[in-house]
User: Fold Alpha/beta hydrolase from Pseudonocardia kongjuensis.
Amino acid sequence: MGRTGRATGIYISEAGATVVRERYERQLAGWPVPLQRHRVETGAGATAVLTCGDPAGRPVVLLHGSGANSAVWRDDIGLLAATRRVVLVDLLGEPGLSDPVRLDLTTSATADWLAGILDGLGIGATDLAGISLGGWTATDFAIRHPGRVDRLALVCPAGIGGQTFRRIAPAFLLSAFGPGGRRRSAEIVTGLDGREHPEVLDEICLLFEHFRPRTTRFPVFDDDALRRLTMPVLALLGERDRVFDPVRTRDRLLRLCPDARVELVPGSGHAVLGQVPRIAQFLDGA
Assistant:
């Protein structure tokens, strides 16, 4: 498998890594439904997987974004767990509990890794849902293994509309100016209002105080690749997303994917919160 090397430097310090891991462990301890924890060994690295819900239900695999972990799905997870076998995967090289390895996104390494996880869990075809980098990962897997994806739900996905670095460049500068700069940076990148979502921004600031984010551009899928997405696709896009171009994402999906529906979420930026109910509705065929 292609990889960029063991990313032992994904945290600024070992003490910071401990802070992030302990915070995540507290979130998992307060999970709203019974939770099982697994560690799946793959050729790319050991991967932390969480499962909950009905073990006999139709599977759905949830993939978080960059600079995050599976806790992003926590608040409304009961909607899916009521009838589904829910599988949450901590992406490699992110602030979860998987190995600190970042794969080469220009190769099949990421799709091979995810296929190995599904094989290890005895999952053939599944529904997939992903946020940002998780959306890129889900899309890449669906393109390379279309027969293994029944429905594909994407929230502000990377790799379709392209990145708009110039619109978030000020955020990278602000993040160097202490806690206040990091908070303003998080507001710019996410599009969240700190007065409305203080706890979410507190969580993001804690992570990025200690975590080194990815800085390279995500590969953009070409037209022929996107045409392979013949399964039903739902894309939920922030109308004001400064990270990935929502208009181009919408236009390409509607033009190239035969069964795509796209919703621009008014007033939202890159962090489109509270979308699990809409995803659950889509996965149930509504």
Q: What stands out?
A: The chain has a mean pLDDT of 91. The two ends are 38 Å apart (CA to CA). Residues 3-149+162-283 form a domain with the Rossmann fold fold (CATH 3.40.50.1820).
